[in-house]
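Subject: Re: docking follow-up (flavin-adenine dinucleotide)

Dear J.,

Thanks for your patience while I sorted out the input files. As discussed at Tuesday's group meeting, I've set up the holo structure prediction with flavin-adenine dinucleotide included as the bound ligand rather than trying to dock it afterwards. The sequence and the ligand SMILES I used are pasted below, so you can double-check that they match what you have on your end before we go further.
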Amino acid sequence: MNDLIAQLTEKLGAGAVVTGTDVSARATSYWDPSPMAAKAIVRPSTTEEVSAVLKLCNERGQKVITHGGLTGCVQGTDSGNGDIVLSMERMATVEDIDSVSHTLTVQAGAVLETVQNAVREGGMFLPLDLGARGSCTIGGNLATNAGGVNVIRYGMARALVLGLEAVLPDGTILSSMNKMLKNNAGFDLKQLFIGTEGTLGVITRAVLELAPQSTTKNTCLAALSDFSDVPKLLNHLKGTVGASLSAFEAMWGDYIRAVTEPGFHSAPMDRSHPYYILFECDGSDPGRDNDRFLEVVEQAFEEGIIVDAVLPKSEAERQAVWAIRDDFEAVLAPKPVFLYDVSLPITSMEAYVADVRALLVERLPQSDLYVLGHVGDGNLHFFVRANTESGDARDLSDRSVYEPLVRYEGSVSAEHGIGFEKKQWLAQSRSAAEIAVMRQLKATLDPKRTLNPGVVID
Ligand SMILES: Cc1cc2nc3c(=O)[nH]c(=O)nc-3n(C[C@H](O)[C@H](O)[C@H](O)COP(=O)(O)OP(=O)(O)OC[C@H]3O[C@@H](n4cnc5c(N)ncnc54)[C@H](O)[C@@H]3O)c2cc1C
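The structure tokens for the complex came back this morning:
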């Protein structure tokens, strides 16, 4: 096998192949600080190099695990000592920002925040944003069909993709770097690689659609006394500020209280309310947008939908409010803490959360439950802090979250994907026929099971 590493080194150059303690010096992922395991990490810098790596590994029956920014939440990047890790870290170039066609052409290893900044400097807006922006990559975002905080207005990552380039497990380069909104010439093959978690190919480049930069931004953190007011507020906003609504994030009281404990974030308002909604509107009419936003918040007050509200008056204040939503470090210790990502209709959320809470009280009585989510998209996240190291805590917690979901016809994965972590739950959200077709696709494009084997499906 050293022969394989020698061949990879010959093809890519010595600096592009990392072995030994340089591998174990890296952390497994954002969530898991234990040393990374791999026979070698290869770091190609071009699509042709990705193709050469995959061709060689595929011929040799060598498993390859693709790494982006390692922020994925479902263990999709877990590798073992016998694996080759293909890291996209050297393919991070923003190739083109086209202000006429409103498109971005970018290599897949580019970090989301770097790309967001480059697009902003180019006078436009990349409508993809998530808390992991400082580490996650465009390729990882597309491979997981990431959601994030702007989905309510712009859709998930898939909705932004005009063109894509990917390398198949046998090294074939499939380049569809289309820039047009419309192109129905045959099958839309790029969809094979979006949301399939690196199981069918390695995404190397993409063309994404950009939006105009907004000139106004209005943000509000509102407190609500009853969950029935959450859909009322959403409908109120949709019926008034409509399409300018760009975020609608919910945080349950327990979450707010935990992340505003001393030493974490400062509380922007009374911490005792049961529900908080962080909503934001992006607009293009400075003369009217701010007044209209205020008017809409006041109406919500008058109608009793919200009971308290904070409107940040500066960008620093706005970021401090968003940090409460994005930075959940306070609930991540002591370990183990289990993160969940489910979707279900907003009208069923209150009953569902009550079911989960009741099951946890029964099965893991010492645990803490923290709830938040992109509720405007029907998406909830849970952090379950087990407060026990007992071996069955994970299983008890998983069953408490997923089993009641059946009643509400929800999905076991809203935006994080399946990875290795949720495989045993996939059949709860997908039919046997759907899973069979997933397997057929995998067998057709990757008959030797070279790429990310065992991720999503066996
Ligand atoms: C603080 C925080 C907040 C988060 N918030 C959100 C959120 O709001 N919404 C959301 O959807 N997710 C969220 N996530 C999860 C995570 O950031 C996303 O899943 C992200 O899209 C993963 O990107 P990555 O580059 O880190 O991918 P990785 O973690 O490196 O990989 C994820 C999967 O994609 C595959 N992959 C990576 N790059 C490629 C490529 N170029 N070609 C093919 N396959 C590839 C990997 O093999 C793996 O299966 C959050 C994570 C953190 C830590």
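A couple of observations from a first look. The pocket of flavin-adenine dinucleotide is lined by residues 30, 66-73, 76-77, 88, 108, 130-132, 136-137, 139-141, 143-144, 146-148, 197-198, 202-203, 415-416, 452, 455 (CB under 6 Å). The first helix runs from residue 2 to 12.

Let me know if you'd like me to rerun anything.

Best regards,
T.
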